[in-house]
Amino acid sequence: MTDSKPLNAEELLLRSLDLLPRDLDAWSALFAEDAVFHLPYAGTFDAPTSREGREAVFAGMTWFLSLVDKLEVGDVTVHNIAARDAVVAEYSVTGRMRSSGKPFDQIYIVRVEAEDGLITHFSEYFDTLRFKKHLES
User: Fold this and answer.
1) d(Cα 87, Cα 13) in Å, to the nearest integer?
2) Per-residue pLDDT tens for 74-91?
3) What is the DSSP letter of 44?
4) How large is the average pLDDT for residues 89-106?
5) How confident is the model at residue 3 (pLDDT cuts 50, 70, 90)?
6) From its phi and psi, is residue 105 left (phi > 0), alpha (psi between -120 and 50) or beta?
7) If we measure between CA atoms, which residue out of 79, 78, 73, 87 comes closest to residue 120?
């Protein structure tokens, strides 16, 4: 029998980026049942600014993936936060808008907190005006 150490915040973030968009069920399983996914500026395009609970996080990502196809994540830089299981990261995402076939590109800054090997808080910051333009194209 092997003792497996729970994933830390950095490992969870990198695993989540690897799973999107190919396995949304495995991606959502990385989140605690009571996880909170914050999108502080999402009101710019009339989306919820917070989703609470694994099912709500899953629904939010399902909505996003209904808009954007062929996601590719690149240029990931992770910074650990001292004295807690948390990270801040920056990465780029490219893809295609499903409605128009036009390119999608965005840079994200995220803060991820973990506890007991699961993501408890995920805050995502991005250029919402750019995203809104993608939605309108």
Assistant:
1) 8
2) 999 999 998 889 999 999
3) G
4) 96
5) low
6) beta
7) 87
> How far lies 32's CA from each of 37, 68, 80, in Å?
11, 25, 20
Strands of the sheet containing 31-38, edge to edge, are 50-52, 31-38, 118-126, 103-115, 86-97, 68-81
Report whether 86 contacts 68 (CB < 8 A): no
Distance CA 43, CA 8 (A): 30
- Tell me the CA distances in angstroms from 130 to 45, 76, 83, one per residue in order: 10, 20, 35
Q: Which CATH architecture has domain 9-136?
A: Roll (3.10)
Q: Where are the domains of the chain?
A: 9-136
22 contacts: CB under 8 Å, gap ≥ 6: none
Q: Is the pLDDT of residue 2 over 80?
A: no
Query: What pLDDT band is residue 97 in, cutting at 50, 70 and 90?
Result: very high
